[in-house]
Design goal:
mainly alpha; globular
């Protein structure tokens, strides 16, 4: 990771920890596009960066400490591996993880949790572990910081983002084990937590986009169409607000899928309009939604010829 990239991660993490939006930080300093480049490690104008850091309450000495902090560096490496995995670059993700494994014993507890979580997901994708082992490993990861975690217990009063992400993965594991009611129960808990506890509206919308997509999908497959439609509509709003076009398309499709099957009043007409809008987005090559595009095309053919 270059110095500019490390600096960009620090600016973004500090801004988010303060609950500030990009608009909040760049007001009076620079454009939002300039800040986005800085956070992406692609901009290094010293005067602009200096003003940003001052506004974030970071001194030069603090900045030096952060860029040299091994715990911070490890966290960014794990994030880099996770991004590679999300982009389908499995070999790159595994190479980063293999590099990190040599220093695993020196990691902080939270970094061990992040590492073990991603390692579990990669092993599952590679066919090394099965669904039951994946669930067992993920629950073990969560107990690293939540000692008394149980899928039958209510959530703690406070959760980190890593812990919330783990709960999402645990819910998906229950889904793959054909226990959709348990997956739905966990995702409802996560949804309610984010809505009640995450104060930054943009951060909450980003989290809810993913949660509402999965939750609405599981609800629809269980035949709980009214709930699916309500949750999917919430996901549509959140993904549009946070500019997450992939989940915007996915939530519209989930909503259309259940409306067509519920078939009350104007459901069929609205479902068709939503599905066609989702199809237009899924056809954008840069979004890489070819699988979703196929599902929508089959849906439209099945219900509307």
């Amino acid at each position: 990771m270059t110095y500019e990239q490390a600096l960009g991660h620090i600016i973004k993490d500090r801004r988010e920890s303060l609950g500030a939006t990009q608009t909040d930080l760049c007001r009076g300093i620079c454009s939002i596009s300039t800040l986005s480049r800085a956070e992406g490690g692609e901009y290094s104008d010293s005067r602009t960066i200096s003003i940003m850091l001052d506004k974030l309450g970071l001194s030069d000495s603090t900045l030096t400490e952060l860029t040299r902090d091994p715990d911070y560096a490890v966290r960014q490496k794990i994030r880099e591996a996770n991004q590679a995995d999300c982009l389908g670059e499995k070999a790159k993700a595994r190479a980063i993880m293999d590099e990190l494994s040599c220093d695993y014993d020196d990691f902080s507890l939270t970094n061990k949790q992040r590492y073990d979580t991603l390692d579990t997901l990669l092993m599952y994708d590679d066919g090394i572990i099965d669904d039951k082992t994946r669930l067992k490993n993920l629950e073990k990861c969560l107990r690293m910081t939540l000692n008394n975690y149980s899928s039958s217990s209510p959530l703690p009063k406070v959760l980190t983002r890593s812990e919330r992400d783990l709960l999402e993965h645990i819910a998906n594991s229950y889904y793959y084990l054909n226990n959709r009611p348990k997956a739905i129960e966990i995702l409802y808990q996560v949804k309610e937590y984010v809505e009640a506890k995450i104060l930054d509206k943009l951060d909450a919308a980003e989290d809810l986009s993913f949660t509402c997509y999965n939750l609405s999908k599981f609800l629809g497959l269980e035949g709980r169409y009214d709930e699916c439609i309500d949750v999917a509509r919430r996901g549509i709003y959140c993904s549009r607000y946070s500019s997450q076009l992939d989940y915007y398309a996915r939530c519209m499709y989930n909503c259309a899928w259940s409306m067509a099957r519920r078939n009350e009043g104007s459901d069929r007409e609205e479902a068709k309009a939503l599905a066609e809008k989702a199809l237009a987005l899924a056809s954008v090559e840069e979004l890489n939604l070819q699988s979703l595009k196929g599902h929508i095309e089959n849906f439209l053919k099945e219900f509307y010829g």
